[in-house]
Design a protein that fits this description.
By secondary structure, this protein is mainly alpha-helical. 72% of the residues lie in helices and 3% in strands. The protein contains 7 helices and 2 strands. A hairpin with a 2-residue loop joins strand 1 (82-83) and strand 2 (86-87). Helix 4 (68-78) runs antiparallel to helix 5 and helix 5 packs antiparallel against helix 7. It is elongated. The mean pLDDT is 82.
Amino acid sequence: IEGAKEGFETSIKIIPYVVGMLVAVSLFRNCGAMTFLMDGLRSMMVAIGWNADFIEALPTALMKPLSGSGSRAMMIQSFGPIVDSKALYVDSFHGRLASMFQGSAETTFYILTVYFGYVGVKNSRYALTTCLIADLAGVIAAIFLAYLFFH
């Protein structure tokens, strides 16, 4: 009973950090910043002559460090329209890549915000930089492997 009581108190303490993170993710998605960013990246890839097929799945990778559920929503959107209870593009290149992104990165900002906020860490030193570098390495590896196996 004491453990359950302490868990409830912990949940109450982290609510402001979770709400703040959810609001930030919602603002990023709904203000058009994601679409603007993807269009810019696609134009840049085409301009330098690279294959830009991975751009369709990239919102999943960009959302993953912010929110696990937000990145899952982006992954489902990358699957395409749903007809007769079946997604049409689940086995497409960008559908598979978006699925790979789910396992290639962590919810870095969520973890740092909630846990560091709850514990009261004021100086995170290199935690954010290290986590984002690891996320980037996972995303690059997922893109490479998706082109290797599915393209």
